[in-house]
Structures are given as structure tokens and as C-alpha cells.
Design goal:
- This protein is mostly beta strands.
- The chain has a single domain, classed as Beta Barrel (OB fold (Dihydrolipoamide Acetyltransferase, E2P)).
- It is built from 2 helices and 6 strands; from the N terminus they run αβββαβββ.
- A 5-stranded mixed beta barrel has the order 1-2-3-5-4.
- A hairpin with a 6-residue loop joins β4 and β5.
- The longest helix is centred in the first third of the chain and has 8 residues.
- The relative contact order is 0.23.
- This is DUF6152 family protein.
- It comes from Brevundimonas balnearis.
């Protein structure tokens, strides 16, 4: 059961690495926790969930919780889900005046 849960969580193949998205948007919701951070942004009046990296990795690379706080403007570069769900797996984020590699 543990292996199944881990495989389900790390199913990066569900994202389309052939289609890179680069939206710039205001953060509507922000989560700074395990197993990874996440934010919600609005792009063309549609809400998108954005999967970030683990908090420890973001902190080590210079991203802070304040950088992705609600109301901040961020640019995400990442891949959308293949099934059409409005979710992006972020490869990098520009926030707080810096670009941070997440993977």
C-alpha cells in the first residue's frame, strides 16, 4: 500500500512536458507544507492549482513563504496535466524579484 501511495503521489507522467506554460498571475491561495508547497492562481478568469517543490527545497534555493503569499504576483513555468485538469507542475517560479528552480 505504501508503494502505491508513493507512486500515485509522484505520478509526474500525468503532466505534459511537451507543453510549457508561463503564466504571470496573482496568488489567490498559498500552502507552505508537506509533502510540497502549492498555490492557486487565476489565468484568464480560471483558477489553476500549481504544484510546487517540497518546502525544504524551496527554502534552500531562496524562496520564502512570503514570496508566494496571497496577493503576490508570480510567474510560473511548468507543465499542465494531460487530462485537462487546471493544474501545473511548476519547474521554476519567479517571485519576490528572483527566479527559483524547483526541480
Amino acid at each position: 500500500m505504501i508503494a502505491t501511495a508513493a507512486a500515485a503521489h509522484h505520478g509526474w507522467s500525468s503532466y505534459d512536458a511537451e507543453r510549457t506554460l508561463r503564466p504571470t498571475a496573482q496568488v489567490l491561495e498559498s500552502s507552505w507544507g508537506s509533502p510540497h508547497g502549492s498555490i492557486v492562481i487565476a489565468v484568464d478568469d480560471q483558477r489553476w492549482d500549481v504544484v510546487l517543490a517540497p518546502v525544504s527545497r524551496m527554502q534552500a534555493r531562496g524562496l520564502t513563504q512570503a514570496d508566494i503569499a496571497v496577493g503576490r504576483t508570480v510567474t510560473i513555468e511548468g507543465y499542465p496535466r494531460r487530462d485537462g485538469t487546471r493544474e501545473i507542475r511548476a519547474e521554476r517560479i519567479t517571485a519576490g524579484g528572483k527566479t527559483v528552480e524547483l526541480r
